[in-house]
Design a protein that fits this description.
6-stranded mixed beta sheet, 12 helices, alpha/beta, 336 residues, Rossmann fold
C-alpha cells in the first residue's frame, strides 16, 4: 500500500479523496496544518505528498522533503507559483498538478459574484432576515447592453465570456495568445488591454500569475477605468495591488469589487477566524466597504470539481507507484 501525506486537509478534501482512493492501494494520512520547511518531518516516511495553494514549497521545504525521502509532490490545484521548481528539479522531486478540474465551476462563481454584487443580493438577504423589506440602496443595473472585459481567455475566461454574452453583454477580451476563431464564433472582440480597461463596465480577471501580471491592476490601471466600473477576480490575488484598490474605493471610483482571491490568503482563507481579531488591516478595510464582496477562494468548490481533483491526483499517484506514465499535461517541469 502506498502512503501519501496529505496537508492542509479540510473535511471536503477527506470525503472526496477517501471515496476516490477506495480499493486503489493508496492510503492518505491527513494533516490539517499547512506544510512548510519547519514541519517536513511530519512526512513520516511517505514517498509522496499532496498539498494545496498555501503550503510553502520553497527551497528549504523541498530540501527537508528530500531528506525524508519524498519523490513526488501532488498539487491538488492548477497553480504552482508556490513551488520552487528549480529546487525541485535539482533534488529530483517530481511535481504534478490538476491543470483543469472544472472551468465551469470558477466561471460560474465569477458570474455569481457579479450578479450578487450588482443586484445587492447579499445585502437584501441580510435585511429580510431582520424583517427589513426596504429597497433603498439596492439599485443595480441591467447587464444586457453593457460591456464586459475578459482579461485572459483560457478555458475559464472563455466560459465566463460566453455566459456574459448570453446575458446580452458586449464582450471585449485580452490575451497574449488570442483565439480568433473562438472570438468570431461568439461575437467577442479582442483589443489591447488599455482599451479593455477604458471601455468595460465589468472587468473579470482570468489570467495566471506571472512576473508580468503581478499587480496588473495597479493605480494607473484603476485610474484608466470607467467611473462606476465593476471588477471581478477569481484568478490570483496578486493580480491586484490591494493598497491601490483601497485608494480607488475610498475615492468612490469603482461601482463594485468582487474577490474570490486575495494577495495574502495564507492563514486567513479556508480558516474559521470568527472568534479572532483579523490581523490583516488591508483585508479588514476591504470587507468594510459596502460595495465590496469577498468570498474565501471557493470558486472551485463544487462536487464536480472536487471529484475531478481527487481523480486526477489519485490516478497520478497510482501511475507513479507502478512506474507508469503520468497523466498527460499534469507534470510541471522547470522551463528551459
Amino acid at each position: 500500500m502506498m502512503k501519501v501525506a496529505f496537508y492542509d486537509a479540510k473535511p471536503y478534501d477527506q470525503e472526496f479523496f477517501l471515496k476516490t482512493a477506495a480499493d486503489t492501494g493508496i492510503s492518505y494520512v491527513f494533516h490539517h496544518f499547512r506544510l512548510s520547511a519547519a514541519n517536513t518531518a511530519t512526512v513520516g516516511g511517505c514517498r509522496a505528498i499532496c498539498v494545496f495553494v498555501n503550503d510553502q514549497i520553497d527551497g528549504a521545504c523541498l530540501e527537508g522533503l528530500a531528506r525524508e525521502g519524498v519523490e513526488i509532490i501532488a498539487l491538488r490545484c492548477a497553480g504552482f507559483n508556490q513551488v520552487d521548481l528549480k529546487a525541485a528539479a535539482a533534488l529530483g522531486i517530481r511535481i504534478v498538478r490538476v491543470p483543469a478540474y472544472s472551468a465551469h465551476a470558477v466561471a460560474e462563481h465569477a458570474v455569481a459574484l457579479l450578479l450578487t454584487l450588482n443586484r445587492k443580493i447579499h445585502r437584501a438577504y441580510n435585511r429580510v432576515r431582520e424583517h427589513n423589506f426596504s429597497l433603498n440602496g439596492l439599485v443595480g443595473f441591467d447587464l444586457h447592453g453593457r460591456t464586459a472585459g475578459i482579461v485572459g481567455t483560457g478555458k475559464i475566461g472563455r466560459i465566463t465570456a460566453e455566459i456574459l454574452r448570453g446575458f446580452g453583454m458586449d464582450v471585449l477580451a485580452y490575451d497574449l495568445y488570442p483565439d480568433d476563431k473562438w472570438a468570431a464564433a461568439n461575437r467577442i472582440t479582442y483589443c489591447p488591454l488599455a482599451e479593455l480597461f477604458s471601455r468595460s463596465d465589468v472587468i473579470s480577471l482570468h489570467t495566471p500569475l506571472t512576473p508580468e501580471t503581478h499587480h496588473l491592476i495597479n493605480r494607473e490601471a484603476l485610474a484608466s477605468m470607467k467611473d462606476g466600473f465593476y471588477l471581478i477576480n477569481t484568478s490570483r490575488g496578486k493580480l491586484i495591488d490591494t493598497a491601490a484598490l483601497i485608494e480607488s474605493l475610498k475615492s468612490k471610483k469603482p461601482g463594485g469589487i468582487a474577490l474570490d482571491v486575495y494577495e495574502i490568503e495564507e492563514g486567513v482563507f479556508f480558516e474559521d477566524l470568527s472568534h479572532d481579531v483579523l490581523q490583516d488591516d488591508d483585508l479588514a478595510r476591504l470587507v468594510s466597504f459596502p460595495n465590496v464582496l469577498v468570498t474565501s477562494h471557493q470558486g472551485f468548490l463544487t462536487t464536480d470539481a472536487l471529484t475531478e481533483i481527487a481523480r486526477v491526483t489519485t490516478e497520478n499517484l497510482i501511475a507513479f507507484e507502478s512506474g507508469s506514465a503520468l497523466l498527460e499535461g499534469t507534470e510541471v517541469k522547470m522551463a528551459h
